[in-house]
Design goal:
Length: 966
């Protein structure tokens, strides 16, 4: 693929920010009046935050003190006591903050990512004690299920930039601070033990952790060690449509047609009747199915921190943070594949959604799989703070972080399909009966030749495809930061620089690259095929009832699913091998070099190595003065960011496509020789920031903030090659391309807020914000030929749906955050409530068929309420979190639409959680937690609300445990 660098466009607010930069320059030259002590408090690690006062009210007051005294817009969550964070997941705690909402993992229900003011994970930078954390996912975001919260000291969310910390986030910068031995001298210990159970899984699993901290050598040295083992088991039920593809139907396909011949063809095709020409826009389901997923999530978190104060002026901190998460999921289900050209008796609703149809000869697959992924992350760093003079402090920090996905190269996905087709294919369809929030689609009939009683008849089951994958990623970050702070009377000046090098490597080995996935495709003799073999009854472990499958949803499913092990099925096939001409059921000619073992091969198109080097320098000035007798706090800063990217991949082009005699839906692509491709690019940006706060009264504060921030592209978007998969499906030829010349998103941000601190531990606030964002990265799609290869199913040049990313338009996001925290005197009762309302000038337009994958994603109104009681050693908390429908992304699991990248929307959801804590003694407390007590589900849909994509029922979770601290 040829790429062209896009010109980086500045947002419309650049004139105002240029004025900000000029004002900052004048301030540096002006007489100095003082330092905003709150800025230092907001930027401080957990070690500088008093954690003596315990309990919910103590934590809320500390958070409020930092928010009140900070120059910028900062929200904070502090531990209620050592080893006692409000939630077991970092993201679950963050969603209590104004403007912050979470993205859940559908199959586990766990909070996996966050959005801040509508900007999702990749727009938010996560730091550990001020250092970037590596993540092997390839994105900028961190999967918060991998970050243990048990011994977190503090979370600080910077919604306006602190230039000495970072400016690489349009959404927010999240700084996670861990406790350190000098936080409190002496010896401290904390232990936690708990058991949790998810109601569907029905198995109690443990969490066990401990923390030890001590100082010695006259309190000039200290060491802190903690470790936590956590396990979560979840059983989730799912109904899915893998993609709603847009295309054109012919009139002869529609319900009521009397046509005896129907050969749907594009305009311009010769020898076709008028009603055979595809002219009617519509969306159809590419694949429909249901499955059950049992997930075992095990995580180990460990940390060691050493501090040494050789003199009153110097403090050295060395720490190592380690985590290892293993997520293993067992999957059983069914799936049925559809092709638009084979559909008949089609009913379209007013939006063009196919709400009913029939497809003759449809095969049925019973699917099984095991996904196993290990994510290991280790970050080690050293920091030295030196009070060089009474006024000057030097801060130097160096760190190394490496994250590895499947570091041992294990097979990460084992998949299998068995079933029936051919002579046993069924004339069936899928009926859509309502909105995706309460209805899932349902089969109109099922079973071999429509005989529902034989739906899972083992006598007719035969082998089909076999999928194995080994995904291996790594992300390695080296960073060094040097800063200096000058304080004199009421003036603070900060200067500094940072170097960061981030290297991301990716590769995938699978059975598509060598076509071994088709080795025994075809279903075998019962389906009238010579390829494929019968499935022994011994491989089937039982059935799974679908009764009451998804709580609160209407729709009918076949009565049971088959339960079998994908790897055992693969090993059975491997045991049959007697050579290419003697093995019964072998799909001869499918797989060059096949010797009976379902081995994996490297997919050259998946190989990427991205090196991103960035240099930054900053300066900020902070002072306090009076304006008309009112305290005025001023902070101005700027940051220069310079980035160079070197992107390497392996390129090749398709040379031919062949069909499969075993299964008419399968295609195999052959390729040219592979060759290495390397591209490089660079960019630089000047990022000013301004924070002003006027204390109208002691309790009423007015804020104004303006800044420019950037968010770099995902690392895995920067690959230099076009990737065409070796294994393809009829009517669904796809290719994906990235772009090494992508520029970062660039935003001008403005905040105006009013805060009222009307009594201790209570406040109300309103904050208006506007973000003008340019260089949006869009996943445009187009249908095109590649190397003029021929599609054997049409005899014409093959048309691929090619997805590629480019910098595109700009958009404005604006909104308002409302927050109210109140404690009812000494009663022990209180609440924390907030709501966020957002909108954009570039919402998604479902009627625009020329749209190439652009609208602002992640925007949703949200509201949170935490009501609590905290007195006399007893705590009780109710948390209610609501998020409205929002556009998650462009693209679906199967995305071959003729109308560009189809959207994925997440339906609105409301979840209620309960927690309690009882202090038995000063050292011992017991606690309990009930999550998702209303049994909320997670569901998504496509372009229109009745185009369900996924719905998961992930159940409730209950936890009980004990804490000990000394």
């Amino acid at each position: 693929m040829n790429y062209r660098a896009n010109n980086a466009r500045a947002p419309r607010g650049h004139i105002m920010l240029a004025t900000t930069a000029s004002l900052m320059a004048m301030v540096i030259a002006a007489p100095a009046f003082g330092q905003d002590a709150g800025q230092a408090a907001a930027a401080s690690p957990a070690g500088e935050t008093d954690i003596v006062v315990t309990g919910i009210r103590g934590s809320l007051q500390r958070n409020l003190d930092i928010k009140r005294t900070s120059s910028g817009v900062v929200d904070v969550i502090s531990a209620e006591d050592i080893g006692k964070f409000p939630d077991s997941n970092v993201a679950a705690s963050l969603q209590r903050l104004p403007g912050v909402s979470i993205q859940r993992s559908g199959s586990r229900g766990e909070p996996q990512g966050i959005s801040v003011r509508g900007f999702g994970g990749d727009f938010n930078e996560t730091l550990i004690d001020g250092r970037r954390l590596s993540t092997a996912s390839g994105g900028r975001s961190v999967d918060f299920t991998t970050v243990g919260a048990d011994f977190v000291g503090q979370l600080a969310v910077y919604k306006t930039p602190e230039v000495s910390l970072s400016s690489s986030s349009i959404g927010a910068t999240l700084n996670i601070s861990y406790p350190k031995p000098f936080d409190k001298t002496g010896t401290r210990m904390a232990f936690t033990a708990a058991g949790s159970v998810q109601d569907e899984a029905g198995k109690v699993v443990p969490t066990v952790g401990g923390l030890f901290s001590t100082t010695f050598a006259d309190d000039t040295m200290g060491i802190l060690v903690d470790a936590v083992y956590t396990r979560r088991d979840t059983q989730a039920n799912r109904v899915y449509v893998s993609g709603w593809q847009g295309g054109k139907f012919a009139d002869c396909q529609l319900k009521g047609s009397a046509a005896t011949i129907c050969r749907p063809s594009p305009a311009g095709t010769e020898n076709r009747n008028a009603d055979e020409i595809q002219t009617r826009n519509g969306w159809y389901q590419q694949q429909y199915g249901a499955d059950q997923r049992y997930t075992k999530d095990e995580r180990i978190d460990g940390r060691i921190a050493f501090q040494w104060q050789p003199s009153d002026d110097v403090v050295l901190t060395i720490d190592d943070n380690y985590s290892r998460q293993k997520v293993e999921t067992k999957i059983d289900g069914f799936g049925i594949w559809f092709n638009q050209g084979d559909m008949r008796n089609v009913e379209l609703d007013g939006n063009g959604t196919t709400v009913n149809f029939l497809q003759a000869g449809s095969p049925t697959d019973f699917t099984a799989g095991t996904d196993k992924n290990i994510l290991e992350t280790n970050q080690v760093g050293a920091n030295i703070k030196w009070d060089a003079t009474e006024n000057l402090q030097i801060d130097a920090d160096i760190s190394y972080s490496k994250s590895r996905l499947n570091p041992d190269g294990n097979v990460s996905s084992e998949g299998a399909d068995i079933g029936y087709g051919g002579l046993l294919g069924t004339t069936l369809g899928v009926r859509v009966t309502g909105d995706s929030k309460k209805h899932f689609p349902e089969l109109t009939t099922y079973g071999p030749q429509g005989n529902q009683a034989l739906w899972t008849d083992q006598a007719i089951l035969g082998s089909h495809v076999t999928v194995r994958m080994a995904q291996k990623n790594s992300d390695e970050i080296k960073q060094f930061r040097l800063g200096a702070t000058w304080k004199q009377d009421d003036l603070t000046i900060k200067v500094g620089a940072r170097y960061m090098e981030d290297e991301f490597a990716l590769e995938n080995r699978n059975t598509f690259a060598n076509n071994y996935w088709q080795a025994y495709a075809g279903y075998g003799a019962p389906s009238g095929r010579t390829s494929g073999v019968p499935i022994p009854a011994s491989l089937i472990q039982g059935t799974i009832s679908t009764k009451g499958w998804i709580p609160g949803f209407k729709g009918n499913l076949p009565p049971v699913l088959l339960d079998y092990d994908a790897r055992a099925y693969q090993q059975y096939l491997e045991s049959l091998w007697q050579g290419p001409t003697n093995t019964p059921g072998y799909n001869a000619g499918c797989c060059a070099g096949f010797n009976g073992t379902i081995d994996l091969a490297l997919d050259p198109g998946s190989v990427q190595n991205i090196v991103e080097k960035s240099w930054s320098a900053w300066v900020s000035v902070n002072f306090n003065t009076d304006v008309a007798g009112m305290p005025f706090h001023f902070n101005a800063g700027a940051r220069e960011e310079i980035t160079k990217v070197i992107s390497t991949g392996i390129g090749r082009v398709p040379t031919s496509i062949t069909g499969s005699a075993a299964d008419p839906t399968l295609l195999t692509v052959a390729f040219s020789d592979s060759q290495a491709v390397t591209e490089s690019s660079s960019y630089s940006y000047f990022l000013p920031a301004l924070d002003m706060k006027l204390e109208l009264t002691d309790s009423l504060h007015l804020r104004f903030d303006a800044s420019r921030t950037l968010t770099r592209p995902r690392l895995d978007y920067l690959g230099p090659v076009l990737n065409v998969g070796a294994g393809q499906r009829v009517g669904a030829l796809t290719a994906t391309g990235n772009n090494p010349f992508l520029k970062p998103y660039l935003a001008d941000n403005f905040d105006l807020g009013l805060e009222w601190y009307y009594q201790r531990n209570s406040y109300a606030s309103v904050n208006l914000f506007l973000k003008d964002v340019a260089n949006f990265i869009v996943a445009g799609t187009q249908r095109q030929t590649i190397n003029n290869v021929i599609d054997p199913t049409t005899g014409q040049a093959a048309i691929f749906t090619v997805s590629a990313r480019v910098n595109g338009p700009e958009a404005t996001v604006k909104g308002v955050e409302l927050a109210w925290q109140h404690v009812f005197g000494d009663s022990g009762f209180g609440f924390n409530a907030n709501a966020t309302f957002v909108e954009t000038n570039k919402p998604y337009d479902s009627s625009n068929l020329s749209q190439s994958g652009f609208a602002v994603t992640g925007l949703a109104n949200s509201a949170n309420l935490v009501a609590f009681y905290d007195k006399n050693g007893f705590e009780f908390r109710t948390a209610v979190n609501w998020r409205d429908k929002y556009l998650l992304q462009f693209g679906q699991a199967q995305n071959n639409s003729a109308f560009g990248a189809e959207p994925t929307f997440v339906n609105s959801a409301l979840q209620i959680d309960l927690s309690t804590n009882i202090r038995l003694t000063d050292q011992i407390s017991v606690f309990g937690e009930a999550l998702n007590i209303t049994n909320e589900t997670y569901s998504t849909h496509g372009r229109f609300s009745n185009q369900l994509l996924d719905v998961y029922g992930y159940g409730r979770r209950f936890t009980a445990g004990v804490r000990y601290r000394f």
